[in-house]
Amino acid sequence: MTLPKPFTINVPQEKIDRLKQKLAFADFPDELEGSEWSLGCPLSEIKSLTKAWQEFDWRPAEKKLNEFPHFHTDIEVDKFGTLDIHFVHQRAESRDAIPLLFVHGWPGSFIEVLKLVPLLTKDSSSNEISFHVVAPSLPNFGFSSGVSQRGFALAQYAETCHKLMLQLGYNKYVTQAGDWGWWITRSIGRLYPENCLASHFNMVLANSPESGETVMNFDPKLYTDEEKAGLERSQWFQKEGMGYNLEQSTRPQTLAYALKDSPVALLAWIYDKLHDWTDNYPWDIEEILTWISIYQFSRAGLGAPQRIYYEVRHTSADGPDPSKICTYDTLKEYNSKVPIGLTQSPRDLFIVPSTWAKTLGPVYFEKKNKQGGHFYAHEQPDLLARDLKTMFRTDGDTYKLISEKLK
């Protein structure tokens, strides 16, 4: 049996030097007067960040990342061979801790879990549970290996994460996710419901249970002011914020040339989302540059992370066993086997009414925040820790339901 081995982030110096050379020779476009953020990243901000990145010392940032326990291991994925998967794994001291799989999305990475780790691995009251936290770099992301053939979609990402948990001895576990992690952990709940005992989501995708309404055609008269605000935010995202998604879902290879050759292109492509998808989060320069440098120095290269969009968009709904198919539509179907917890924040990409959210499965925890955005674990780690500790309190319904299965 393959055993995980310790992993240390150590970017070759030639990669750092090459990045600085490219940044030094960057050319910039013009911009329309007064456009600010209406057309995308403002020129002044990208110029400033480019200069800061050129002067940025990666080694202290790398040292800070390495303060967490990193590992890597081989995972065999059906029809795709062996992948070398990087992950953060922090065990709690408590014998009663629950194994928790944290799954990132795009343009995130394992960095999103780091503020959360110390909050989840300790108990703070007699009824609170702690967690053994596992946070992989997904295949094609961060310091995990890439995939070299077509067809690696949600079922394969789910298989990778599930097999990692089994390899670590966690035959029963819970999950937490947003963004692509939402789709991947929904796939895990669909494919491995005997192992995935519960899931918490900080992004919720669902349609109206009564009329088939979507965020693009809802009737304002039927909803509260809070619900309308959430649906309008979702509508804004679908109208004004989906360009990146369409490109990555249809022509990821064409985009890859720009991202690979130009670090400024990568910077703008990701910084646009860090700005638009957060709730006035006070990003500092080191945070931004560390976040983007993980992509710049990723093992699989800058063409790889975007391919998940294409592969999932082009997954066929046909097959001999419909229960094994993981598509955008099938993953919105009700799953009675996995209890779920839901947190929605006002600056996420999709915010739907509770009646819509309850079409996904049996809801054991629900919270609607007054603050927070899409990168919930990074922006509001205290709130996410609150959600998970509340959902899984030892005197709560979720824990009562799953505690016997954990033994």
TrEMBL record:
Keyword 4Fe-4S belongs to the record: no
Domain Epoxide hydrolase N-terminal: 4-113
A Pfam family matched in the record: EHN
InterPro entries assigned: AB_hydrolase_fold (IPR029058), Epox_hydrolase-like (IPR000639), Epoxide_hydro_N (IPR010497), Epoxide_hydrolase (IPR016292)
Positions annotated as active site in the UniProt record: 179 (nucleophile), 309 (proton donor), 374 (proton donor)
Keyword rRNA-binding: no
Gene3D superfamilies referenced in this protein's UniProt entry, alphabetically: alpha/beta hydrolase
GO molecular function, one term: epoxide hydrolase activity
Keywords: Aromatic hydrocarbons catabolism, Hydrolase
Coiled coil regions in record: none
Family: Belongs to the peptidase S33 family.
PANTHER family: EPOXIDE HYDROLASE, EPOXIDE HYDROLASE 1-RELATED
Name of the protein in its database record: Epoxide hydrolase N-terminal domain-containing protein
Upper classification of the organism: Eukaryota, Fungi, Dikarya, Ascomycota, Pezizomycotina
